[in-house]
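Exercise 4. Each item below gives a protein and its sequence. For each, produce the structure-token representation.

Item: AraC family transcriptional regulator (Arcicella rigui).
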Amino acid sequence: MPLTKPNIPLVDIRTLSEHKEDVFLISRFGSYLAKHQNLHLAHRHSFYHLVFFTKGAGFHTIDFTRFETKPYQIYFMIPGQVHSWSFEGEIDGYVVNFSPAFFQSFLLRPDYLDSFPFFNNIVQDSVINLESPLNEKIKGLFEEIILHDSQKEVFQNDIIRALLLQIFILIDQNHFASKPQTIPQYNYALLKNFQKLIEKNYTNLKLPMEYADLLYITPNHLNALCKEHLGIQAGEVIRNRIILEAKRLLINQQTSISEIAYFLNFKDNSYFSKFFKKQVGITPEEFRKKTH
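Answer:
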């Protein structure tokens, strides 16, 4: 049977909560691990997922990039990313899950979270080591969120949203604000729209000219933008997203290479395998063996 949708186990926030209508969850990470032990296996979320470690060691893998876990390290994950972990010793910290809808009624700009680099689907920007005194400040804000989450009070969710935004802004100011912002606003908007279009259409549209048409610019203009601000051409941006999804799907041993090729809209298994090997350096079969 053809594969019609990604088949990595998808965890919904409501399955993790005692209250099925919840769109927000916070927990101490030690308690969260004890309650959801199966979540160490590769899976993806339908929600935003934050983990702030205060104790422990091991490894955490996000979209096939492996990070060594250490105290005062914070992870930001967006819906759809695949991750798994392997921890050692006593682990503690905080975990926050919230649905995409959690901030939509609170902020006038629906893309507000996208303005933070750690929510931009760039894995290297989503894992941050916090140093003193910022780490204690962030820890205190997580404690405040836990306190307000345990109380039934007026504007409870708005207080929690404001505290979360304070965490986001503090980390952005301390880790990203010093980096020079060289992309003009118009070019930045074009690149963001290009990336959003890829996210929606990567299984069907694979050529830069197809995206350039949707953006009402020329393929040369799109290539120049990507080369200048991302360091790679538009075609490579598209191919990177296709390869990422292929890797995500290859984790599941029950799905055949032919089914994955069909889902990603390749004309046959052979063409997909050649494309994958050219980009990754190994065949899909070799990648699958390597990740198990």
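Check: The radius of gyration is 20 Å.
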